[in-house]
């Protein structure tokens, strides 16, 4: 008689699998141990809810080898660590995805995010597991991206039984004990567990896969969309006191008639001048440049309101001609070869009248001016590995402290 | 379908009818519902720390403040920052008879005078982020130095400010790190369910935390122990300026914000609020990372002391949550390793055997292995180890799986 037939949960087998999972993935130990096991006959395999309970089918445990069970443990806890239910809810709200079909798609997309690098290295791969390759998709992407790229159809037919529970996609299941049930973790406790795991990963260089390392870095400081950051930096630089507008004594205030004999300052607006210096060396792609340039000009136009006050200066080793923005379409983004932004800064500051704000778009592979320029500086930094095969030991300088630096990546996630 | 009485005369003034309809729309009921963000706001206001609410426009910050003022029984004064000039906060010059000798007094605006005369109240500075920089500069003096022109706000006045997040602020105002460090930052979000129910006529009524007079002294002791314990172990957390663009304008740790944290922990302890609320407050004062570290060390302060467990292993009650239970078992084994004595070693085995009976066995494996390695030659294996036979089997099976997976 197997335990499945008698219907009792083989706890020893289940916990042996967890022990194995903890030994091969020690950085997940806190999270794995924090899961509370609930035996359930309604669950097809194993499922988690957002309160960190793990529902287990006795039959599934009986027919699955320990090595594969360990993989399922890690898989299920990954859903919770990566906050798939919260992200699923957000995506559902943002894109208007409703209905059980959509939640199944979310479960599949979340599985793709987890499964491309979770198995191997001591963890056996369970049979029939979802992975991006099975859908013809590239590995290493996020659940939100996978969700855009596939529909339910013949390819996903094998997975319609798939159910990792409400912890994986946010839809409540009939077996869920809900927020008031016993042994659930409060949001604060969940954060604490995720924090401990993230800390364990960042404190263990070398032995943790790249995917988990990235998760740990972003767990509590999710990357913000660079468009918003760049926008905020430019807006803040342009609208700060002394640049765009401020109180002046040049003309009397509208309140002056109320207090005769007193000179009150009045609010006056002087549109700020913005100079955008563009690194046109070979290492920056046209697409990156184009999107960043559009962003900056849109912002400065919104702030300054006058196109003629925004100038664009392409720069490689030698700074070229300064172009006003009204002819932005024609700006030759020529260049290639090395960059020296120092000449770009010098050229930008030589304009008369000088700019209030200099925005630099670059990959940072350049020397920087040693002295602070007499105006506000925003740097939009394109990501680069910084590796130079001619000089492998070279570490490019970070932009200096006086500049506000925004890291420009691909369009922001989450 | 219900039948509505049709008025006999049609010459009733339309505005009166409109007033009746408005009264019907205004009549809403409330229901009790826990609200962590409102509880956090209440505690921070009670602790007399400047609070900055970050929230998109139109999500009910003002409504929350109205409720807070009601429950604290404070008159509410709302000042919309964006429609004022700097002189409204720094004082308006009024020219007297002999300005050269008498000077020009800076007259405060009427709301400030009323506030000072009342001696108590809740001052809500709304829409900080849409005011011009000079107005913001003047306002921050109100918040931080509690001065409006020549007037000083009395201690009974509490101040709350609100701002839109950078992404939605039209002119991108943001706090410099020194200013950000003086506020408790609370993210104000709306709860979908609450809004839908509220529009249907039922708004939530929050049960606000109450301070318990008898807990004041232990609360202060607890708060100081918690924060000092963490900072003694992690000196790097004492002062850490935000370095990346994404963290600008938010909370960050410094001696000042840690002092605020001591105050917040003491208030939360005296009011016996949930960890949820404390988490919002602490992370709002020192930032997410340091805040979470403090909360994690508070969790550890709640765990049973290993020495107590070793002194009376039979009576040990271990936490239910697996990860905490494992932390306790590790602590017990570590205590034995630090001071290895035969009786302590045997007591630890009793604790492990107890853990095995009341919870999952895999937690016990690593502590048992470590404890076994601590044995001295003249120590006999205690009888309680027999009860751990299952663990040995479990451990062996896991090792076999590992060997199988390697093949």
TrEMBL record, chain A:
SUPFAM superfamilies: vWA-like (SSF53300)
InterPro entries cross-referenced by the UniProt entry: Put_metallopeptidase_dom, VWA-like_dom, vWFA_dom_sf
Residue stretches making up the VWA-like domain: 274-383
Domain Putative metallopeptidase as annotated: residue spans: 13-131, 164-267
Gene3D superfamilies to which the protein is assigned, alphabetical: von Willebrand factor, type A domain (3.40.50.410)
Composition bias type Basic and acidic residues, residue spans: 386-401
UniProt region (Disordered), positions on chain: 386-414
PANTHER family: SLL7028 PROTEIN
Name this protein carries in UniProt: VWA-like domain-containing protein
Lineage: Bacteria, Bacillati, Actinomycetota, Actinomycetes, Micromonosporales
TrEMBL record, chain B:
Pfam families noted in UniProt: AAA_5 (PF07728)
Domain ATPase dynein-related AAA stretches: 50-183
InterPro entries the UniProt entry points to: ATPase_dyneun-rel_AAA, CbbQ/NirQ/NorQ/GpvN, P-loop_NTPase
Family annotation (PANTHER family): MAGNESIUM-CHELATASE SUBUNIT CHLD, MOXR FAMILY PROTEIN
Protein name (record): MoxR family ATPase
């Amino acid at each position: 008689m197997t335990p499945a037939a008698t219907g009792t949960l083989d706890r020893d087998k289940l916990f042996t699998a967890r022990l194995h999972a903890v030994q091969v993935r020690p950085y997940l130990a806190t999270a794995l141990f924090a899961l509370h096991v609930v035996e359930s006959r309604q669950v097809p395999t194993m499922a988690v809810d957002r309160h960190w309970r793990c529902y287990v089918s006795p039959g599934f445990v009986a027919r699955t080898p320990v090595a594969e069970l360990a993989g399922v443990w890690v898989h299920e806890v990954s859903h919770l660590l990566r906050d798939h239910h919260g992200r699923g809810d957000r995506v559902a709200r943002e894109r208007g995805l409703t209905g059980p079909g959509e939640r199944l798609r979310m479960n599949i997309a979340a599985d793709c995010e987890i499964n491309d690098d979770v198995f191997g290295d001591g963890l056996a791969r369970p049979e029939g597991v979802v992975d991006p390759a099975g859908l013809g998709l590239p590995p290493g992407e996020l659940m939100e991206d996978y969700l855009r790229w596939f529909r339910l159809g013949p390819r996903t037919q094998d997975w319609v039984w798939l159910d990792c529970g409400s912890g994986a996609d946010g839809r409540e299941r009939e077996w869920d004990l809900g927020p008031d049930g016993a042994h659930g973790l409060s949001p604060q406790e969940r954060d604490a567990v995720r924090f401990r795991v993230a800390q364990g990963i960042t404190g263990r260089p070398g032995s943790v896969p790249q995917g988990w390392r990235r998760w740990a870095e972003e767990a509590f400081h999710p990357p913000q969309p660079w468009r918003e950051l760049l926008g905020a930096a430019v807006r803040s630089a342009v609208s700060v006191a002394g640049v765009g507008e401020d109180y002046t004594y040049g003309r009397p205030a509208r309140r002056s008639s109320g207090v005769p004999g007193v000179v009150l300052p009045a609010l006056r607006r002087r549109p700020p001048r913005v100079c955008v210096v563009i690194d046109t060396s070979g290492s920056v792609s046209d697409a990156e440049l184009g999107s960043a340039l559009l962003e900056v000009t849109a912002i400065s136009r919104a702030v300054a309101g006058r196109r003629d006050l925004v100038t664009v200066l392409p720069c490689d080793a030698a700074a070229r001609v300064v172009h006003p923005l009204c002819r932005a379409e024609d700006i030759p983004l020529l260049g290639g070869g090395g960059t020296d932004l120092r000449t770009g800064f010098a050229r930008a500051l030589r304009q008369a009248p000088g700019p209030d704000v200099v925005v630099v778009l670059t990959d940072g592979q350049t020397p920087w001016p040693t002295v602070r320029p007499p105006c506000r500086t925003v740097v939009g930094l394109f990501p680069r590995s910084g590796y130079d095969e001619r000089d492998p030991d070279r570490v490019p300088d970070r932009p200096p402290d006086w500049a506000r630096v925004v890291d420009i990546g691909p369009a922001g996630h989450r | 379908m219900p039948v509505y009485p049709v008025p006999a005369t049609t010459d009733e003034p339309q505005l009166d009818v409109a007033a009746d309809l408005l009264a019907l729309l205004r009549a809403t009921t409330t229901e009790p519902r826990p609200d962590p963000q409102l509880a956090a706001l209440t505690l921070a206001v009670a602790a007399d720390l400047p609070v900055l609410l970050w929230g998109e426009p139109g999500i009910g910050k003002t409504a929350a403040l109205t409720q807070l003022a009601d429950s604290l029984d404070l008159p509410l004064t709302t000042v919309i920052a964006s429609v004022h000039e700097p002189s409204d906060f720094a004082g308006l010059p009024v020219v007297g008879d002999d300005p050269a000798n008498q000077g020009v007094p800076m007259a405060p605006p009427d709301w400030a005078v009323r506030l000072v005369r009342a001696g108590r109240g809740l001052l809500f500075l709304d829409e900080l982020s849409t005011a011009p920089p000079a107005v913001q500069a003047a306002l921050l003096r109100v918040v931080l130095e509690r001065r409006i022109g020549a007037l000083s706000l009395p201690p009974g006045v509490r101040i709350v400010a609100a701002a839109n997040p950078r992404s939605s602020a039209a002119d991108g105002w943001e706090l410099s790190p020194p200013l950000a460090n003086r506020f408790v930052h609370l993210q104000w979000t709306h709860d979908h369910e609450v809004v839908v129910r509220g529009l249907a006529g039922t708004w939530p009524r929050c049960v606000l935390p109450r301070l318990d007079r008898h807990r004041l002294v232990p609360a202060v002791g607890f708060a100081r122990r918690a924060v000092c314990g963490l900072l003694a172990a992690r000196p790097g957390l004492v002062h850490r300026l935000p370095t990346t663009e994404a963290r600008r304008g938010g909370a960050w740790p410094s001696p000042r914000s840690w002092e605020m944290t001591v105050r917040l922990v003491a208030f939360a302890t005296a009011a016996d609020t949930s960890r949820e609320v404390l988490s919002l407050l602490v992370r709002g004062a020192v930032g997410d990372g340091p805040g979470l570290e403090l909360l994690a060390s508070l969790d550890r302060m709640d765990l049973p002391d290993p020495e107590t467990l070793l002194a009376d292993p039979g009576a040990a009650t271990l936490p239910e949550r697996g990860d905490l239970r494992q932390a306790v078992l590790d602590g017990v084994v570590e205590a034995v390793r630090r001071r290895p004595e035969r009786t302590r070693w045997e007591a630890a085995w009793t604790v492990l055997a107890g853990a095995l009976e009341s919870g999952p066995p895999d937690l016990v494996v690593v502590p048992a292995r470590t404890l076994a390695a601590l044995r001295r030659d003249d120590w006999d294996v205690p009888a309680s180890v027999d009860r751990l036979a299952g663990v040995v089997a479990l451990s062996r099976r896991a090792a076999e799986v590992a060997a199988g997976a390697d093949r």
